[in-house]
């Protein structure tokens, strides 16, 4: 079953002079496919005269707990072809080619206290987490939001409304460069000290993220305790590879004999089981795509967590891992885009 869909834009909302929100209409037959968690993103296909298309990931700013339709928010970036094209061309009724929701910038426990850091358009996944924590959890939420000036604050009115609705649970601090200069580690540490035992979620440009981490280090909050969403350009266009799984490749009739160069993998995917040869030097995702299987993925660089699967039996190893935490690794999760076989027979499952 393909994970690429054409979705209609229901509404385009101007958030600031440089940012718009796209509210999507999801057809009833795709409702389950577009169920998402707060903090996840959608990957959009943007037409390009030079390359045919480019793929860009945009965080969902809506919350499945309190918003009716999935929404992404896009801010123009200097020299950013895709963001300018979206802001200039998409209107209500436009059709957009989209991958299903993905990403692992998602809290596991909504009853925790949260401290959230965002800068600029980094607010998009953060406000999804913020709204969800207030709607479903019992803890407190503190938001530190950095922007150039007041006119560039995305969701300014929405944040004000949320503070009025949850005055005892929500704290919002706007740090404006026009008034206070850029955030500093000392300023971050001073602000965060009352919240140093909260769960930390961070999204923003690399310079801002580094400043936040240095500031939290003054409070002895280790970097491994900080959940960070990173925006990066995709080196691979996932829309060029996503094709429906071919029925003729779904099963292998002849027994597969493991060898020094090839292992065997049994894969549970979309309710079907496939048994395939797995060359020991090829990553699992590459093997699945080569056999016409529509395995989920976006970045192919270990960062987004979209291709996560569970190793049910056998041994594997990952070349890189930027997405999974220790607890997930202990549960046998792995990233298909970085996984090689270590034993002759391996059983993995995407159906979790």
Question: Would you kindly provide a written description of the structure presented here, covering whatever features stand out?
Answer:
This is Ferredoxin--NADP reductase. It holds the Pfam family NAD_binding_1. Keywords: 2Fe-2S, FAD, Flavoprotein, Iron, Iron-sulfur, Metal-binding, Oxidoreductase. Its cofactor is FAD. This protein has a five-stranded parallel β-sheet, sandwiched between helices. It has a five-stranded mixed β-sheet with strand order 13-12-18-14-16. The protein has a four-stranded antiparallel β-sheet with strand order 5-2-1-6. The protein folds into three domains: about 5-100, Elongation Factor Tu (Ef-tu), domain 3, CATH 2.40.30.10; about 115-230, Rossmann fold (3-Layer(aba) Sandwich), CATH 3.40.50.80; about 245-350, Roll (Ubiquitin-like (UB roll)). The relative contact order is 0.12. It is about 20% helix and about 30% strand. It has helices at about 80-90, 125-135, 155-165, 175-180, 185-190, 205-215, 285-290, 325-330; strands spanning about 5-15, 20-25, 40-50, 50-60, 70-75, 95-100, 115-120, 140-145, 170-175, 200-205, 225-230, 260-270, 270-280, 310-315, 315-320, 335, 340, 345-350. It is built from eight helices and 18 strands. The two termini are about 15 Å apart. The chain has about 350 residues and is an alpha/beta fold.
What oligomeric state best describes the polypeptide chains here? single chain
CATH topology of the largest domain: Rossmann fold
Low-pLDDT segments, ≥5 res: 243-254
Radius of gyration: 21 Å
Q: Which CATH class of the largest domain applies here?
A: Alpha Beta
What is the N-to-C order of secondary-structure elements (H for helix, E for strand)?
EEEEEHEEHEHEHHEHEEEHEEHEEE
Query: In what range is the share of β-strand residues?
Result: 25-35%
Supply the CATH superfamily name of the largest domain. Nucleotide-binding domain of ferredoxin-NADP reductase (FNR) module
Taking the alpha carbons of the first and last residues, their distance comes to 16 Å
Query: What best-fitting shape do the alpha-carbon axes yield?
Result: globular
Label the CATH architecture of the largest domain: 3-Layer(aba) Sandwich
Helix amount: 10-25%
Structural class: alpha/beta
Number of domains: 3
Major sheet: 5 strands, parallel
